[in-house]
Amino acid sequence: MSIKNNHLTAPEYELNFSDIHPPFETQDAALIEANRCLFCYDPPCMKSCPTSINVPKFIKQIATDNLKGSAHTIFSSNIMGAGCSKVCPVEKLCEGACVYNFMHETPIHIAKLQRYATEKAMDNKWQLFERKPSTGKRVAIVGAGPAGLSCAHTLSREGVDVTIYEKESKGGGLMTYGIAAYKVTPEFCEDEVNYITSIGGIDIKYNQELGKNITVEELQRNYDAVYMAFGVGLARQLEIPGEHLDGVIDAINFIYELRTNDYSSIAVGDKVAVIGMGMTAIDAATQAKRLGAKDVTLLYRRTQEEMPCTEHELNIAKLDGCNIIWLASPKEVLGVGGKVTQLVCNTMKLGEPDASGRRSPVATGETITLDVDMIIKAAGQMPFETLVNSNKIENSKGKIDVKDKSLTNLEGIFAGGDCVNGGREVVDAVQAGKDGAKSIMDFLSIN
């Protein structure tokens, strides 16, 4: 067993990381699907979307060959509608609410139709919004992820001049750096950022990190308002012996490296254990398999009933050949010569429900041992607690406290997205950005 790169040939990498949700190949295919829609009154699909996209309306516009109108309907509610069509867990949102499910029929492929309209808009560079004349107001946004970009576009449409400070060299946040490459490519993310900023009035300053290159005091002094949208990103540690042996890495860094380098340069083990069962864990496991790992095992301390990922995501891992071990919690990492060789896990049973409402895992006293040469930790992400505390922003263990959806305790400072909620879906961050923009416009007495 060994950790190495370049397991596969170039064509194998291309195949393994090709689009997992291919678009409609023809206009006729899109029209046929659009005409399946029942165009429900008081549609449940719209209610289940955090950004409240008018799903029946945009599908009807596709059915009547009004693609510009369809894209405008989508982008009016969700400026990242193109990206969300690729990464949203639609099976628990719009498509999961489709009335066809209650008729025991296949739900409308809402995401695929959304992708059809929005990608046409991006490919043709349709500018569907006209920016109002500048108000003279200036807003700083920290973070060019979904919440920050959504807030920026909403403000810019109203004539507010926006400057985004982004610590990475590219925008997009989680979309660019934290999602499986077979769902959305970095190239698409760059195109989406460029499309969003093409409205004008949005300047992104890259490689500018809060607390290093800029300070809250500077932003308060130079801008009329500030929106914090820097997300989360610190990997939660396991706090077990052997955790720092060579070969034990966190999923955030693993996916980041994969998103920013050629696939052939990414080292992966032959026998990989992934700890966790959230979306990040699934992405890490499936990509390890697609990079050439022979054996990938996902371990979760609870049962399938309590898992945070969707069944759809779990099925992707299963189809890729990943193994699943339920009721297993890491106890110790063993190694030889400083390199990981085994993972010892406690076998668990479920006890009484905890604060989250899920039954708590309790050790049975028995253990299992897996032979591994690589362990990927995907036990969750933690907020930037030190950063938040150093700027005297009220918070709950690093998650910024807000009232009225985006107001912080500091005058003129607003916040939203993962740095507030601790980490949800991209579509939730987009809605948070819209909420933040509304609060800022109220604060600046715009409209």
From TrEMBL:
InterPro entries xref list: DPD_II, FAD/NAD-bd_sf, FAD/NAD-binding_dom, Helical_ferredxn
Domain called FAD/NAD(P)-binding: residue spans: 138-433
Identification of the protein by name: Pyridine nucleotide-disulfide oxidoreductase
Signal peptide region: none
The organism of origin for this protein: Flavobacterium psychrotolerans
SUPFAM superfamilies registered for this protein in UniProt: alpha-helical ferredoxin (SSF46548), Nucleotide-binding domain (SSF51971)
Pfam families: Fer4_20, Pyr_redox_2
Dihydroprymidine dehydrogenase domain span: 16-125
Listed GO MF terms: iron-sulfur cluster binding; oxidoreductase activity
